[in-house]
Every structure is written in C-alpha cells, then in structure tokens.
Amino acid sequence: MDSSDVVPAAIIPSANKGSKQLRACLLCSVIQHPLDFRKYGCPNCEELMQMKNSGDRVTACTTTYFDGVIAVVNPEASWVAKWQRTSKYVRGMYAIRVRGRIPEDVEHELENRGIKYRPRDQTDQD
Ligand SMILES: [Zn+2]
C-alpha cells in the first residue's frame, strides 16, 4: 500500500469556531469540531466508531472533557506522539487526557479484534 502522496490529516479546528465546543475522540483522543466528526467521522477510528452522519454517535464516542492539547504534525517521528501512543494516527490535534469511556459496543468490537482498550484518562499509567 503506497499512499505517501496523500498525507492523512485530521481537520484542524480553527480557533474562531470556539474551543469550548471542541470534542476529543474517546478512543484515539484526536480533537475536532463536533460538526467535523459528524461530517467526516474520526480520521483514525471511524471504522469502529461510526460517527459519520450520526450526532448520537458523536455524542457517545467523543467528549468535551479533555485537557492538554498537543499538535502532532509528524506522527511517525514525534516523541510526543509515541508517548501518547498515537504514532499510528493521522496528524492533527490530540488531547493529552480524555475523560470517559468508549461505548460498550465499540469496546466489544475491539475485543473481537484482539485489541485491548486502554482508557485515556491516565488511570492505566505504567
Ligand atoms: Zn478516534
């Protein structure tokens, strides 16, 4: 698979939309405007979250309760991204800490795929 000429990226929220309304994905912690989540889904885990065109799913799968914002411009090289376990993700804005859990059906889906869900509220720090 060679898609190097198209660099995937999250929709960078513009400041004038009002940062209070921004939401962070509960699974990958990417930060976007809720309208962008609704329009495009999550750039990293839409396959699991299925937020596109569903306001309910956006509400269930993202949260406004996050703090700390890091910009990941080059996910492969960024040590911050590695620390945040986001090195496989698209570039964009990510929350350092996200409160809340993904919906149960998504957690089950992750289990089915052999992926262990790690909440991003830093209760699992190693
Ligand atoms: Zn996500």
UniProtKB/TrEMBL annotation:
* Top-level taxon of origin: Eukaryota
Q: Name one GO cellular component term.
A: DSIF complex
Q: Which PANTHER family match?
A: SUPPRESSOR OF TY 4, TRANSCRIPTION ELONGATION FACTOR SPT4
Q: Which UniProt keywords apply?
A: Centromere, Elongation factor, Nucleus, Protein biosynthesis, Transcription
Identify its protein family.
Belongs to the SPT4 family.
Q: Which residues form the Spt4/RpoE2 zinc finger domain?
A: 22-99
Instruction: Name any one GO molecular function.
Output: RNA polymerase II complex binding
Locations listed in the record: Chromosome, Centromere; Nucleus
- GO biological process terms held by the UniProt record: regulation of DNA-templated transcription; transcription elongation-coupled chromatin remodeling
What species is this protein from? Mycena sanguinolenta
Role summary? The SPT4-SPT5 complex mediates both activation and inhibition of transcription elongation, and plays a role in pre-mRNA processing. This complex seems to be important for the stability of the RNA polymerase II elongation machinery on the chromatin template but not for the inherent ability of this machinery to translocate down the gene.
Q: This chain belongs to which protein, by name?
A: Transcription elongation factor SPT4
